[in-house]
Design brief:
Layout lengths: L9 E4 L3 E2 L11 E6 L4 E8 L10 E6 L2 E4 L3 E6 L6 H4 L6 E4 L9 E3 L16 E6 L4 E10 L2 E7 L3 E4 L3 E6 L4 H19 L16 H13 L7 H4 L5 E6 L2 E11 L2 E6 L6 H17 L3 H4 L6 H13 L7 H4 L3 E8 L2 E8 L5 E3 L5 H19 L2 E6 L6 E2 L2 E11 L4 E8 L4 E8 L9 H11 L2 H4 L3 H5 L2 H6 L3
Parallel strand pairs: 1-8
Antiparallel strand pairs: 1-9, 2-7, 3-4, 3-7, 4-5, 5-6, 10-11, 10-14, 11-12, 12-13, 15-16, 16-17, 18-19, 19-20, 21-23, 22-23, 23-24, 24-25
Helix pairs in contact: 3-5, 7-9
Length: about 475
């Protein structure tokens, strides 16, 4: 690796530009930024109107759902155009200038660089200036992925610099996101101290602190109306646990773990054990009701009967689908689990399986149909893709990041939409059915298309698409 000592290294940034109409950064490029309050960070410039290069209206993005308005920024400095490789090969060097220093030059210096090689790691959510292994500069927000592991998020869709690509790093200024994380860490430490010896309310926990006791009492009540009821059926729905919080035992909904810690949503609808048991009856009633074996397996216990129906239904529109494709990677079976017969998905590579929460034969068939549709789309190669242009689009708290329309080898089309917030993202894929292309006009086609990918839900409306001649031509109209 590089010869210079990063512990003594300082970087001097000497080519700052003011945020003003005739001096704006390039659309979509990444910059070091000085905020008006004196803090430093970095981000990608996205103007409101990307065609207007003089506009000061827009946002700098630091990651998915992590951005701030240009009105908060005082100055910007390019990061992307510098390669420090030659300088870093000099073991005597301790200062590198980004641009010439002339009279009146506005200069900011950063030092105190650290390295993962020494076992040093940023704090979670800390925004850092980076020197990458190829000698270029970058920045990003450190996100822990476990002990001694993580990545620097720097753009939407959780785009990141992995730690093995970073030679040295130093924190930039604190911000609201980092300060919130610091407060959460302080609260976690306080909770650990309080929860070492939790106490139990005698009215709420009169039957002890074993959650199964409460489930069994609720089961007794359910069986009077649903004789087939079992604990297994009740616990198909996200189940409740007894856990310590603020030094006391609580009933809470088990929402899994985050960073190795249990996430529990406290039950607050009552204050006694009997009230909680009655709550469990109501909470699990629908799941138990929908687990009637007579309804669930009304087509019999041969899973192939269900699979054949699903295949025939999907084949009508996904004409290229074959049965070999449907059986790739996993298949389906009916197994007895904890005394109950269940539909399961079996994984061929490791002989494992997962239980499906399908309370009727119809819901199981629908589940398999969705699986077959996804497999069919994966089996049909893309021959060309059109990325629909858009500005900033917010989708119920998430930001639209990608809207791609692809033509498949068979001549059919599919759509892939990606959106996310600061810490999570997701994609959905849609098949544009042959029925849409039976439309005689482009406008009629779009009416049918929007029934599949509605503009109100996925950001691109009929109005947006109607005036896009490139898209119209891509669809063959």
């Amino acid at each position: 690796m590089f010869s210079c000592d990063y512990k003594k290294l300082r970087l001097s940034f000497n080519e700052f530009h003011n945020i003003e109409a005739d001096n704006m950064p390039e659309y979509g490029s990444f910059y070091l930024l000085e905020m008006k309050d004196g803090r430093y960070t970095a981000g990608t410039w996205y103007p409101v109107d990307y065609k207007d290069k003089k506009s000061t209206a827009g946002k700098f993005s630091r990651g998915t759902g992590d951005s701030f308005d240009a009105s908060e920024v005082s100055k910007w400095h390019a990061l992307y155009k510098y390669d420090l490789s030659d300088c870093l090969e000099d073991e005597e060097i301790n200062l590198i200038n980004m641009g010439l220093i002339e009279e009146g030059t506005y200069t900011v210096r950063f030092g105190d660089f650290k390295s993962f090689a020494d076992g040093d790691f940023p704090k979670n959510e800390q925004y850092c200036l980076l020197i990458l292994n190829d000698g270029t500069l970058a920045a990003g927000r450190w996100t822990e992925l476990g002990e001694k592991n993580g990545q620097f998020i720097y753009a939407s869709a959780l785009a990141s610099h992995s730690m093995n690509k970073v030679w040295a790093w130093t924190p930039l200024s604190s911000d609201d996101i980092f300060e919130q994380e610091e407060e959460r860490e302080r609260e976690r430490i306080r909770e650990e101290k309080l929860n070492k010896n939790p106490v139990a309310d005698p009215e709420k926990f009169k039957y002890g602190t074993d959650i199964d006791v409460y489930y069994e009492k609720a089961l007794e009540k359910l069986k009077s109306k649903y004789p087939w009821a079992t604990l297994t059926q009740m616990k198909k729905k996200t189940h409740y646990v007894i856990a310590p919080r603020h030094g006391k035992y609580i009933f809470g909904l088990d929402n899994g773990t985050y960073k190795g810690k249990m996430v529990v949503k406290e039950w607050t609808d009552g204050s006694t054990a009997e009230e909680f048991i009655d709550f469990l009856v109501e909470y699990t009633k629908v799941t138990v009701k929908n687990s009637n074996p007579e309804e669930k397996f009304k087509l019999g216990m041969d899973v192939e009967v269900y699979l054949e129906k699903a295949y025939d239904n999907v084949k009508r529109e996904y004409r290229w689908l074959d049965k070999k494709t449907t059986r790739e990677r996993w298949g389906y079976a009916i197994k007895q689990i904890d005394g109950d017969w269940e539909f399961v998905r079996e994984y061929y590579d490791n002989h494992d399986f997962s239980v499906l929460d399908c309370g009727s034969s119809e819901s199981f068939i629908e589940y398999v149909e969705h699986d077959y549709e996804e497999k069919a789309l994966r089996a049909n190669p893309v021959v060309s893709t059109y990325s629909v242009p858009f500005g900033h689009v917010e989708l119920h708290g998430w930001n639209l990041e990608r809207y791609d329309i692809s033509k498949l080898k068979t001549g059919d089309y599919k759509v892939n939409v990606t959106a996310g917030d600061r810490v999570a993202g997701g994609s959905r894929e849609f098949f544009i059915t042959p029925y849409c292309f039976e439309a005689k006009t482009y406008e009629e086609f779009l009416n049918r298309y929007q029934d599949i990918v509605p503009g109100g839900s996925f950001g691109i409306t009929k109005k947006d698409m109607l005036g896009n001649n490139e898209l119209k031509k891509f669809f063959g109209y």
